[in-house]
Amino acid sequence: MSCLNLKAVIFDIGGVVMRSPFIAIAAYERKHNMPPNYLNCSIAGHGSQGAWQRFERGELDLFSFYKQFGEELSDTVSGNVWYKKYCDRKGVFCPALPQTLHINGRELFGAMMRESNEYNPHVKQAIERIRAAGKHKVIALTNNFAKISAPEEELEFLGWGQSAIPSHLLELFDDFCDSSILGMRKPEPRFYLLACSRNGIKPEEAIFLDDIGINLKAAKELGMETIHVPLEGAFGAVKMLEERLGIDLTSNLNARL
Question: Sheet holding 175-178: strands in order across?
Answer without folding.
Answer: 175-178, 137-142, 8-11, 206-210, 225-228
